[in-house]
């Protein structure tokens, strides 16, 4: 799989790595070919540890309902 932004990070690595901080600068995700839903999932996976949906939503700048939908794997109609 492709290496994202020349950092050596691959999609699979992002799914198993737990060393990203909740204060991570997520701008590097904009340079990837991940869909908006996948970007949100990456952020949710690493920002959401022990946090309420409303706290995660505030950090990510999305609605608590969208956080819930992402957690449950519900297709979000606002994402193409």
UniProtKB/TrEMBL annotation:
InterPro entries xref list = RNA_pol_sigma_r3/r4-like (IPR013324), WH-like_DNA-bd_sf (IPR036388)
SUPFAM superfamilies noted in UniProt = Sigma3 and sigma4 domains of RNA polymerase sigma factors
What is this protein's name? RNA polymerase sigma-70 region 4 domain-containing protein
């Amino acid at each position: 799989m492709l290496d994202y932004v020349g950092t050596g990070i691959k999609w699979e690595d992002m799914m198993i790595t737990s060393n990203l901080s909740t204060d991570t600068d997520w701008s590097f995700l904009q340079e990837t070919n991940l869909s908006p839903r996948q970007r949100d999932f990456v952020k949710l996976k690493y920002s959401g540890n022990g946090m309420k949906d409303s706290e995660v939503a505030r950090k990510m700048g999305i609605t608590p309902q969208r956080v819930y939908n992402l957690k449950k794997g519900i297709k979000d109609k606002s994402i193409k």
